Amino acid sequence: MMTQATYVGDSQHLDMPLDATTHSFWMPVDAAEGAAKVDFGFNFILAVCTFFFVLIVGLAIAFVIKYRKRPGYTPKPSPHHSLKLEVTWSVIPIVLCGFMFWFGFSSYMTGRTMPPNANQVSVRGQKWSWTFEYPAGFNNGELHVPVGEPTVLTMRSDDVIHSFFIPAFRTKLDVVPGRYTKVWFVPTKVGEFQIFCTEYCGDLHSGMTAKVVVHTPEDYAAWVEKNNITIDSFNTPEAKGEFLYQTETCKGCHFVNGTRLLGPPLDQTYGIEHEMSDGSTLVGDENYIRESILNPNAKRQKGFEGINMTSFQGRFTDQEIDYIIAYLKSFRNQ
Amino acid sequence: MSEGHHDAPFLAHHFESHEHQFNAGKLGIWLFLFTEILFFSGLFVAYAVYRSSNPEMFLGASKFLDTKMGAINTCVLLLSSLTAAWAVRCAQLGNRKGLILNLAITLACACGFMVIKYFEYTHKFHLGIYPGKWYEASPDHPLHLQTFFSIYYVMTGLHGIHVLAGMGVFTWLLRRAIRGDFGPEYYGPIDFSALYWHIVDVIWIFLFPLLYLIR
Amino acid sequence: MTQVDSTTGLSHGSGGGHVDYLDVKKGLKNWLVTLDHKRIGVMYLIAVGLSFTLGGIYALGLRLELMTPGETLMTAATYNKFFTLHGAVMVFLFIVPGIPAALGNFMLPVMLGAPDVAFPRLNLASFYLWLAGGVFFVITLFTGGLDTGWTFYTPYSVSDATGTIYATAGAFILGFSSIFTGLNFITTVHKMRPPGMGFFRLPLFVWGLYATAVIQVLATPVLGITLLLLMLEKFGGWGIFDPGMGGDPVLYQHFFWFYSHPAVYLMILPAMAVISEVISTFSRKHIFGYTMIAYSSIALALFGSLVWGHHLFVSSQSDLTSVIFSALTFSVAIPSAVKVFNWLTTLYRGEIRLDTPMWYALAFMFLFLIGGLTGLFCATLAVDVHLHDTYFIVAHFHYVMVGSVMFAFLAGLYYWWPKMFGRIAPEGPGKLSCLLSFVGFNTAFFPQFIMGSLGMPRRYYDYAPMYAPYHMASTIGALILGVGILIGVGNLLLTLRRKKGGVPDNPWGGATLEWQTSSPPPLYNFEREFHVFDPYDMTINRFDEAVGGYVLTDEALAASKAAKAARKSGGAQ
User: Mutate which of A105, A126, A158, A300 to disrupt the C interface (most C C-beta within 10 Å)?
Assistant: First the structure.
């Protein structure tokens, strides 16, 4: 299984500690409005907890030492209930909890109230990658946003439940098939930050990461300008196919450099004889590629048993499948 | 510990008296019925959620159910509940003949209910309305008919399983009644089974209007 | 019936007329069809012990995998199966039945002075249902495992290719085992109490079991129907949770947590109840605030059933729902706090004996404090949004479910072992095991709080290098914990090689009824007359050098006889 191991070592997934240098003991870097408030809440609760923890453990240790059974020690009598004490240690926690609730509630609601005129980005979660769709009409595997301006993400899932988490922004929300969910934030620091999927979604759950890049408004405009590429920007079917490979999550599981990622390498598909898991052999042709996109688990190459690819039925048009076939063919023509 | 149990064949060793045993059994069966209600309540919640999100679909789909058959089944079950209660009274009074008769009627009603249910189900299957993935779409069916019938099948199916279980219990009771096990001293099993039967009945009383009478 | 003078308090293990429950009818066949609650309890103990071993092996496997980033030991697919089976086995087969079904089954009737539970046949049926559920889990292992996470979230669990259907069927059956145990215990507490033992003279362990049973009866049926719907969905495409057919996957989460959050209290309540017994006995002092502890168990059972929505704070449920559930969630903090304060005050001015059960109980207090207090972070909405589904949560619930429940289980085992098997485990290895487990546990799980709040998501096979030191510490801690538990359990098991008997009826000085019968008890628990007192009045017994244990004082006996006579004449009027 050595081949499967290699995907981690050299992958694009997890080699970036991104904000590792600036985090505090408990919390990652704080890079969005509202994050400081969450940290305040965390630290307040931490202080309350530490106080009670030290108090109770300290008293327990003191009691165990002072009242341990030993020769010459006779315990003094003490009451076994006291209304005053019991009311005290019920009311104090109620007051503290009340404050914590209020704090959590008010800052949560601030975080849930969508601002008008925000920058809009659509997020699509799919096993096991994120795709970001910008209003200009192009897709990208990275989330790029301007600093100091609100961005609203409208999220949906193509398959199972995922969860969109940016630790540096202290924001998280599930991405659910069959409904849209929305989060928003105002980044306060320019830089790159980690995006995680935090709802278990299968084999490569831990590889379902991406990064959010926060630009100055000028840089952001320039980035949009530069990346405003859609499939129509390309002329040849091969180039269109490669564009789809780059933007439609194929590259999340398939390399085109001859080595195996989670799935087989796509450059070694067309016109090559494959050993299949049922023992037969098959030469990769147009029909095989088409079937592998629409009904991926019907025919498996040997060594890929138990790895399930999600069907792209309904996501690609026939025309787009033709582009992908053209792209995979192009590796044979070189 | 009481040593005098050996003359009472149906008194378990760890109870002090028939009354003690009956009281424990009664609490036990009530708790069990409570869990039964909770078990069905999940389905009622699912029903409420889907009906509120697809009200038209429920109206349209409900038309595929035969109200007449449902109404007859309701009457059959109500009658069986009456005889079940009557059986308890007969046992308390030591009326063995009445007990046997009432148990037999209850059992017959339960069979009747299942027969009618069978005809209802086969009629649906005939229209292609199979449960779940076996559903066969047809141009006569309103959109998402399947979702309504998913709920219909799981609710009535689960209820039907409870009726079948009740039939098993009443057959066992009938056998014991004929053998003469029950009397004013010992009638716990009749009482508890009748309670169970009432709950099965009550659940149907809710299912009938929720599924059949919503147009 | 053999009459033994109740003041001598020494069991006649060999010789004399005493036959204990272990010796009544020997042979495997007699054990398998037994209706004796004590034997059923022992069978549960063996069964949950084996499950714990299995779950523990998975735990060590996945901790070793996570020791370094990237592939350490196994592939991602295998890792996913490991964490799923670790969770599913530990929750459904070990923690939920653990204390109530094993220790509870054994102790509940004895503590009530009753010959058995209310429904002994149903009790045996529960055990076999447990076994059947366990068999389904074993089938799951041999049919490709399970990789859905123990929560079986749809649509993932419907779309994946592993043995979800067997596992859900197993959990469904285990649910009924749990329901019947709960029903049996509630009836037993209501109907099998001896004269003179009102509800507020029940031992707190019985209160804990009672509250647990309330949850079992309240919440488990909903799990049953949820899993049934899931099975129909997986097997027959029923569509109730399928967004493609107008269904709602988030509804599944509501259903699932409606059971599974109360289930957390189902796990912790019996653990707390064991601790109440142990702390009072080893402080040789009346438990402080008996009534408050009893009420807080019931409060936890009821409030705990109303807070499931905090598992859905980031699930896209409505904001209003989240706010309401956040407020309700804080309500469980109060009864938990009350219990801790009461245990603490029980220590005050006691005469504290530090035997192994007390070591475990004190370790429990420490771990439960951390587990409980970190719950406050998770209840606070805005903070939880950040912490949700990270290792912070993993650490939090392991402190509660492992740290607390497992330490309480061991405290209870060491406490009642002499009563159950007529042998006392050596102190040295017992304390060593407690110390190692304690150090190991904290090393394993405290770093998880830090990496969790730093953003490390749970159920990750792989992670960025910044989290590596925490994972390394965690794995080392898990190994130490494993060794600690092995020593603790081995120490108990090794006593079984010794000849039983010669153990005093009451080695620790407990005032509850189980300490008035012989160790181990006879078939119907009491061969001689027992005396009902306040279960925490430690003045009723005194240490007797000749017996090597505690015996009732003459004053207490006289008082009990007077009370009985008064009841009799009162009843005759």
Answer: A105
